[in-house]
């Protein structure tokens, strides 16, 4: 299982960090874990699936 930080997810999706944090808070992109600072960490596979779904629905 490969985990991605908020910054890595934001770069991958082409959005700002706050957008990723909001997606996690609204349970649209659930976090797999939290780091030592309490920031969410995401599974790479889940992020890739979310990107495909978002593009099918009209974009991020």
Helix/strand/pairing class, anyone?
alpha+beta
Number of β-strand runs:
3
Looking at the structure, the CATH topology is Multidrug-efflux Transporter Regulator, Chain: A, Domain 2
Spans of at least 5 consecutive residues whose pLDDT stays below 50 are: none
Q: How many structural domains?
A: 1
Rg, please? 11 Å
Q: SSE string, helix = H, strand = E?
A: EHHEEH
Q: Give the overall shape.
A: globular
Walk across the major sheet and give the strand order.
Answer: 1-3-2
The CATH architecture would be Orthogonal Bundle
Strand proportion, as a percent range, falls in 5-15%
Please write the CATH class name.
Mainly Alpha
How helix-rich are the residues, as a percent range? 40-55%
Task: Please characterize this protein's 3D structure.
The protein has 60 residues and is α+β, with helices and mostly antiparallel strands. Strands 1-3-2 form a three-stranded antiparallel β-sheet. Helices cover 50% and strands 13% of the residues. Helix 1 (6-13) crosses helix 2 (17-25). It has a single domain, classed as Multidrug-efflux Transporter Regulator, Chain: A, Domain 2 (Orthogonal Bundle), CATH 1.10.1660. The longest helix has 13 residues, at 44-56. This is Helix-turn-helix domain-containing protein.
């Amino acid at each position: 299982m490969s985990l991605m930080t908020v910054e890595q997810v934001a770069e991958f999706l082409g959005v700002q960090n706050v957008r990723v944090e909001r997606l996690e808070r609204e349970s649209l992109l659930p976090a797999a874990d939290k780091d030592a600072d309490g920031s969410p960490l995401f599974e790479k596979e889940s992020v890739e699936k979310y990107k495909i779904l978002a593009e099918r629905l009209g974009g991020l």
